[in-house]
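Please, structure for the following, as tokens.
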Amino acid sequence: QVQLVESGGGLVQAGGSLRLSCAASGRTFRMNVMGWFRQAPGKEREFVAGIRWRGGSTGYADSVKGRFTISRDNAKNTVYLQMNGLKPEDTAVYYCAADLNSVVGVRTARWAYDYWGQGTQVTVSS
């Protein structure tokens, strides 16, 4: 079992920044990829960014490339999502997720992720 707890969400004006954190506990040695997803009201949950736990290679959704940066601190079992240049369309609940089975790269499909956090709300005002 892997437990994931997100923090760092909040309300910010357009153009502002936020940093989300996701602390992992439990069988963290099984984690291959840590990802961030988001879900806006009335929309499907979508991939935002992911990072391989060993090696550090990353992947991003086109909508956030150049604005968001994912990173990890293996010693703290924590993954971060630095969000700059926020837009109102970034408003959503952001979820952290762990993929235990990825062999190479970062998978973007929801079904690929085995464990999920409870989510943290990000609201960007115009």
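Residues 63 and 84 are 12 Å apart (CA to CA). The mean pLDDT is 96.
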